[in-house]
UniProtKB/TrEMBL annotation:
This is Solute carrier organic anion transporter family member. Belongs to the organo anion transporter (TC 2.A.60) family. It comes from Anas platyrhynchos (Mallard). Keywords: Cell membrane, Disulfide bond, Ion transport, Membrane, Transmembrane, Transmembrane helix, Transport. It comes from the Eukaryota.
Length: 589
């Protein structure tokens, strides 16, 4: 066993002096680069964890938010090939540091809309709508009173957020541009100056951070979205909502500040790393060391030849290198596989949280916690098991490819049942559903003489799973409120008009605290803010059979979209009927 060391840029400097300087250690570079990659992934991944909250805050459509989430790839895709090609002619650590500064700036810009817009204004007029008959059924002759839903929605229909979108798109473009030199230059720098034995280990650490990073971003989103969006502008006592309320908007901007600050701190050491550092010293067999020295000397001579080329010749040589790679079938197949894998992961990561929120009535914070809690252990197990298999069986390149194919097939089989999970499309009376309900009447017949405006929006949900866009469309005429229980639990008394039988008065009915589905029951008992466990009242219309008559008892749902939503955005944001909570009330109440 002999110790060997390749020639470096510091031939006359004592080895002890080199060891005392951390910026001449490849191990310290690996540590710094792992921290930087994790911080960068926090910035890019945090947007995906808070995408539904940003939609709710600024009334964005899923199409717009999806474009925003993918816009950082535009700058990255346009520049990464050229920047990577010029890597041999530049100071790679400093380029990495400059890219990190751009990423940090992008993170701070992403939080800027919170500071340039006014406070979040949610709909606080629930009680007034209860006591104001203008939002209920009005027989003919009373239509001159107007409708509250129109007055609420009209001012906000034309409200747009061009400034917010412009700032966010610029930030995403900077994020993509800043991320270009970080991974390619970091990997090449480690590969050049790490020993042959340790280089795979160092690169494996970086790839592990890349896999775990998005999960950490979702956990950060889960923590930040528990705080109210205007936590810096109002006190906690002034917040009248819990994070289970559909009007709740979490502090989406706070996570960007945290992640951007981490990137800024991680960028500092790169300006102190040299352009070249001494090759890492390792122990190995003499024959192996000799081969390594020969290979490294060949690579070094080629690198020197490239650096000696003029800039014009260097640029002219670029198409030749690009075409040579594009004609390589194995390279093209690897790129195609990575493109498809990235497309699948990007779409899943961006909208999985929103899917969980809408389909299973979860809070944004809890949905992010689920994704992060599943992603991180899964990534760690995959990395450890994969590395153990490779080391134990010394698999070849073809066997590694076969393992990748087997893993993808396993993912496909596990993901296939997702096509059949979730709730059916919500039935909205007069919008997506026009058949007869379980009450035996056409779904809109109860509001035939109510003069309900087309733009009324104040959704209620029936026990038959049919959603009505307002109490007026459900035929509710009068409501009396008894707030003796809590601000969110009301005892209601409503008159309902039915085409066949005039006015009938409903019984007094308190909100029944219906239990959550078993799958969520354990999750709802997790230790958090006690205010999160306040039950949600949902407006239901329950049929009650009596020998002489049939009546419908309406209960109000406190689902109200934020005031600054447009009509279309508010419609998209409706929390679906809690079909797993509904059941006919057959007993006397």
């Amino acid at each position: 066993m002999t110790s060997t060391a390749t020639k470096s840029s510091y031939p006359d400097r004592p080895r002890k002096a080199l060891c005392r300087n951390p910026f001449l250690s490849i191990k310290f570079f690996v540590f710094c680069h792992g921290l930087l990659q994790l911080s960068q992934l926090l910035v890019s991944g945090y947007l995906k964890s808070s995408i539904s909250t940003i939609e709710r805050r600024y009334g964005l459509s899923s199409q717009t938010s999806g474009l925003l989430a993918s816009f950082n790839e535009v700058g990255n895709t346009l520049l990464i090939v050229f920047i990577s090609y010029f890597g041999s002619r530049v100071h790679r650590p400093r380029f990495i540091g400059c890219g990190a500064i751009l990423v940090s700036l992008a993170g701070f810009l992403m939080s800027l809309p919170h500071f340039i817009t006014g406070p979040y204004e949610y709909d606080q007029s629930i009680a007034s709508m209860f006591s104001n008959t203008t939002d209920l059924c009005q027989p003919e002759g009373l239509e001159s009173q107007g409708n509250l839903s129109d007055t609420v929605c009209a001012p906000h229909t034309a409200r747009e957020n061009h400034e917010v979108l412009l700032v966010m798109f610029i930030a995403q473009a900077l994020l993509g541009i800043g991320g270009v030199p970080i991974q390619p230059f970091g990997i090449s720098y480690i590969d050049d100056f790490a020993s042959e034995q340790n280089s795979p280990l160092y690169l494996g650490i970086l790839f592990s951070v890349t896999v775990i990073g998005p999960g950490v971003a979702f956990m950060l989103g889960s923590a930040m979205l528990r705080f109210y969006v205007d936590i810096d502008k109002i006190t906690e006592d002034e917040v009248q909502l819990t994070n289970k309320d559909p009007r709740w908007v979490g502090a989406w901007w706070l996570g960007f500040l945290v992640a951007a600050s981490l990137v800024a701190v991680s960028a500092v050491p790169y300006f102190f790393f040299p352009r070249e550092m001494p090759k890492e010293v390792t122990s190995g067999k003499e024959s192996g060391s000799k081969k390594s020295e020969d290979l490294l000397s060949q690579l070094r001579s080629k690198s020197e030849q490239v650096q000696n080329l003029s800039l014009a010749k260097f640029i002219k040589h670029f198409p030749v290198v690009l075409l040579r790679n594009l004609r390589h079938p194995v390279f093209l197949l690897v790129v195609l596989a990575q493109v498809n894998l990235s497309a699948m992961v990007a779409g899943l990561a961006t909208f999985m949280g929103k899917f969980l929120e809408r389909q299973f009535s979860l809070t944004a914070s809890f949905a992010n916690m689920i994704i992060g809690a599943v992603n991180i252990p899964g990534a760690m197990v995959g990395i450890v098991v994969g590395g153990a298999i490779l080391k134990r069986f010394q698999v070849s390149l073809k066997q590694c490819s076969a393992m990748c194919v087997l893993g993808m097939l396993l993912c496909l089989l596990v993901a296939f049942p997702l096509l059949f999970l979730g709730c059916p499309t919500q039935k909205v009376a007069g919008v997506t559903y026009g058949e007869s309900s379980d009450f035996g009447l056409p779904t809109l017949e109860c509001s035939f003489h109510c003069n309900c405006p087309e733009k009324a929006y104040n959704p209620i949900c029936g026990s038959d799973g049919i959603e009505y866009i307002s109490p007026c469309h459900a035929g509710c005429e009068v409501v009396n409120i008894d707030k003796q229980f809590s601000p969110e639990l009301h005892q209601l008394q409503l008159h309902l008009q039915k085409r066949a039988g005039g006015l009938r008065q409903a019984r007094d009915l308190r909100h029944r605290l219906l239990p959550p589905p078993p799958a969520l029951r354990g999750a709802l008992l997790r230790g958090r803010d006690p205010r999160q466990h306040i039950p949600h009242p949902v407006l239901h219309a329950h049929p009650q059979e009596h020998p002489a008559r049939r009546q419908i008892v309406c209960r109000w749902d406190t689902v109200h979209a934020a005031e600054n939503f447009s009509v279309d955005a508010r419609t998209r944001s409706v929390r679906q009927c809690h079909r797993h909570h509904l059941h006919p009330l057959g007993e006397e109440v």
